[in-house]
From TrEMBL:
Membrane topology, record value: Multi-pass membrane protein
Keywords recorded for this protein, A-Z: Cell outer membrane, Ion transport, Iron, Iron transport, Membrane, Receptor, Signal, TonB box, Transmembrane, Transmembrane beta strand, Transport
Cellular localization per UniProt: Cell outer membrane
Name this polypeptide is given: TonB-dependent receptor
Pfam families: Plug, TonB_dep_Rec_b-barrel
Keyword Repeat: no
TonB-dependent receptor plug domain: residues covered: 52-161
Family statement: Belongs to the TonB-dependent receptor family.
Domain TonB-dependent receptor-like beta-barrel: 303-726
Major subcellular site: membrane
Signal peptide residue numbers: 1-28
Length: 761
């Protein structure tokens, strides 16, 4: 971790506190009229440009202004401020987004939430199921669609969609900006920094432009690994083995501080070409690389921000991911019709190094420092063609074709360098050699057609219907596996295959009795792709058949019924949006543990989910702006098959029932060139339930965070002081299985820092 010697906690804290004294109120004469009303937000959630307040879907939008004034940098900053959304930041490869309580966190499952970067789907399956946490650098807006979006976004949009829309190249003029951010973190001896730069270059005025973005983060860790040491022990006699066959290595006492540091870099280049007045072509490349330098959990038995693991003596744990995106979007407009082609090639490379010493200790009574290394490479190609109507007529339509092909190459192995005598063939009773991988290759191919039409009548009423038909083929191959403790599939084992077809309809009725009031009733069906199960050892086949698990797990589906209102009052200074919904989730894909030690996925339950969401934003006078969001969801199992750990009437785990946020911003001016604002935000994430076994249930406590931001700005320069999690709340976002040792993943502790931005044209 790079240290920033010139940036001390004392200096940052003093600057932060002193600035609070000099904030002066703005007068009405200094504030333009358009600052006194709410900003009109245009979104493309329905594959066409519409006002957010007109879209008959529960949608939240985070604008470029929100990103700057609220200090949003990634998913962890903004998703928990959206009603009905919970982000579990477990680090590269394992972070999860849960919308309206709909979760599916079992390893290897497709996601319940689709994520997009522009036209590119980034929720690529790589046997981890996690979401790439893209940094919000030079982003135009983020759209969060709640509820299934199966008609327009297809598989994995079962719970909703999160879309990050980057700023587009601008051929009208040159612009550039640079930014830097430094901050300290409580419980850490290191400082953190972020640098970024953007340049927009018109190559042909009003026709061709290039936009290039780059950024780098070094984020300090705050967890210390304090290991008391352990002697070398020969466990052979206790297990009836010859002396010297099972000898755990001696590990001296050691301390490693701030082990969970994180390094990120990213680049993006976009070329926008207005070939003719009718034809536009956009090319985009983006890469983001994230490395987490150790496992990011604490062991509360050893301390609030500490862990105790011998494996770090031999190697650092951690995780990493690299996402590469290449996109070509071409759009041609006729007088009444538009044709769009979106082609995408992307690749996700991920790794995790996990400490599974607990498994060796549980199996052999020996604390052997075993690492488990997971590696996966996911490759994705998608092609979408859309033909849609233009103009403002009462009849609007859209039709399209979609193709997807993705592959996932997954391997898993246990290096034996820390204990060369601990994993010979005789110990596991099988042909198992150290460093031998368990490998798996999977392939998916989708073909879909979709359409949506709407008709406005009597000037105030609009009815819309849509549908998507999809065919999905999946193949999984386990070409070689020497097993792990239990005999696995043999080399040359045949492929496991599965296929499915889904028809997903949707419909809505929208009523606009006034210009600033929209009421809607909406129903839609979403689905998640089926899954090819891993090939099980022969010893597991009978147990799998007993719970109805076969080679292929069918898609699960979700119907959403929603009533919503979107409104503005007080001459556009108060906005209020609300929605109530009922969801029926059928054939839920659940993990079923087998007596042989493996687990399988099965369509093992049904869930009902009822909820309510509320969003409010208000401009009070010339200087004050307020926002509020809250949600409540109640998801319960309506049906459960034997063999799972759940029961009928039980609450769905892994997501909070309640969340909320509130914010206030006060704007001021300081003469003819300088202005600024003070902003405070509070975020609440409710208690959630975790379940690891029939009798192993855990309640994870609620937490809240308070943030403060003070900015001084002129046309080309911004100086911002900020504090995040000011109360230093120890919020737990994930908890490990207690019977395997208490482990907790936390939100980041208090951070205090300064940010500078400079722009020029």
């Amino acid at each position: 971790m790079m240290r920033m010697n010139g940036l001390s906690r004392a200096a940052l804290s003093a600057a932060f506190l002193q600035t609070c004294v000099f904030a002066a109120p703005a007068s009405a004469a200094d504030t333009p009229r358009d600052a006194q009303v709410l900003q009109e937000i245009i979104v493309t959630a329905t594959k066409r440009e519409e006002k957010l307040q007109d879209v008959p879907v529960a949608i939240s939008a985070i604008t470029a202004e929100d990103i700057q004034t609220r200090g949003f940098t990634n998913y962890a900053d903004y998703l928990n401020t959206v009603p009905g959304v919970f982000f579990e930041d477990g680090g590269p490869g394992v972070s999860q987004i849960r919308i309206r309580g709909i979760s599916g966190s079992e390893g290897g499952l497709p996601s319940t939430t689709a994520t997009y970067f522009g036209e590119t789907v980034t929720s690529v399956l790589t046997n981890f199921g996690g979401k790439p946490n893209l940094r919000l650098v030079d982003i135009d807006r983020v759209e969060v669609l709640r509820g299934p979006q199966g008609t327009l976004f297809g598989a994995s949009a079962l719970a909703g969609v999160v879309r990050i829309l980057p700023a587009a190249p601008d051929a009208s003029g040159f612009e550039a900006h640079v930014g830097a951010r430094g901050f300290t973190t409580a419980h850490s001896s290191d400082a953190s920094y972020h640098v970024e730069g953007t340049v927009n270059i018109p190559l042909i005025t009003d026709r061709l432009a290039l936009r290039v973005v780059g950024y780098q983060d070094e984020i300090a860790g705050y967890i210390d690994n304090k290991f008391a040491g352990q002697p070398s022990v020969d466990y052979g006699a206790a297990l009836g083995l010859p002396d010297g066959l099972l000898v755990t290595p001696a590990v001296p006492a050691f301390t490693r501080k701030d082990i969970n540091s994180e390094d990120t870099w990213g680049v993006r280049a976009a070329l926008g070409w207005q070939v003719t007045d009718a034809l536009k072509i956009d090319l985009t490349h983006a890469t983001q690389d994230v490395t987490l330098n150790s496992e990011p959990f604490t062991m509360p038995d050893f301390g609030e921000y500490e862990q105790s693991r011998a494996l770090d003596y031999f190697e650092e744990g951690g995780a990493g991911e690299r996402l590469e995106i290449n996109t070509i979007v071409a759009k041609y407009d006729w007088d009444a019709v538009s044709l769009t082609s979106a082609s995408n090639w992307s690749k996700m490379t991920r790794f995790t190094n996990q400490d599974i010493t607990y498994l060796a200790e549980g199996s052999f009574g020996a604390p052997i420092p075993w690492p488990l290394r997971d590696r996966s490479v996911g490759k994705l190609f998608t092609q979408e063609l859309r033909l849609q109507s233009l103009g403002d007529g009462p009849f609007q339509w859209l039709a399209g074709l979609f193709y997807l092909k993705q592959t996932a190459d997954f391997s898993q192995f246990v290096p034996d360098y820390s204990c060369p005598t601990c994993l010979p063939e005789v110990l596991a009773g099988q042909d198992f050699a150290a460093d031998a991988p368990m490998a798996r290759f999977s392939e998916e191919e989708q073909r879909a057609a979709f359409a949506q039409v709407s008709y406005t009548f009597a000037s105030q009423w609009t009815v819309g219907v849509g549908a998507r038909y999809l065919e999905d083929d999946l193949t999984s191959l386990t070409p070689a596996s020497d097993g792990f403790l239990i005999g696995g599939a043999q080399p040359g084992a045949p492929d496991q295959e599965g296929s499915s077809s889904e028809f997903n309809p949707s419909a809505y009725l929208r009523y606009e009795p006034a210009e600033d009031l929209t009421l809607y009733l909406q129903a839609g069906r979403g689905f998640r792709s089926g899954v090819v199960n891993q090939r099980l050892p022969d010893a597991c086949q009978a147990a799998a058949a007993a719970v109805g698990a076969g080679a292929f797990t069918d898609p699960d589906t979700l119907w959403n019924y929603e009533l919503g209102v979107k409104s503005q009052f007080a001459d556009g200074r108060l906005g209020l949006n609300a929605a109530v919904y009922r969801q029926d989730w059928e054939g839920v894909q659940l993990g079923v543990a087998l007596p042989c030690g493996f687990s399988v996925l099965a369509n093992a339950g049904d869930v009902t989910n009822d909820g309510v969401e509320l969003e409010m934003v208000a401009q009070a006078g010339d200087a004050w702006r307020f926002n509020f969001a809250a949600s409540y969801t109640q998801a319960e199992f309506e049906r459960v098959e034997p063999g799972t750990i759940y029961s009928k009437g039980e609450r769905l785990p892994d997501a909070p029932e309640k969340n909320g946020s509130v914010g206030a911003q006060y704007s001021f001016v300081m003469g003819p060139e300088w202005s600024g604002y003070v902003r405070a935000d509070y975020v609440y994430v409710g208690e959630l339930r975790l379940k690891f076994g029939v009798d192993e249930v855990l309640s994870q406590e609620s937490f809240n965070t308070a943030n403060l931001r003070i900015a001084f700005q002129r046309e080309d320069l911004s100086i911002e002081l900020f504090g995040r999690n000011l109360a230093d709340e120890r919020g737990v976002i994930d908890t490990g299985q207690p019977s395997l040792g208490a482990k907790e993943t936390l939100i980041r502790p208090r951070e205090v820092g300064v940010e500078l931005r400079y722009g020029f044209q």
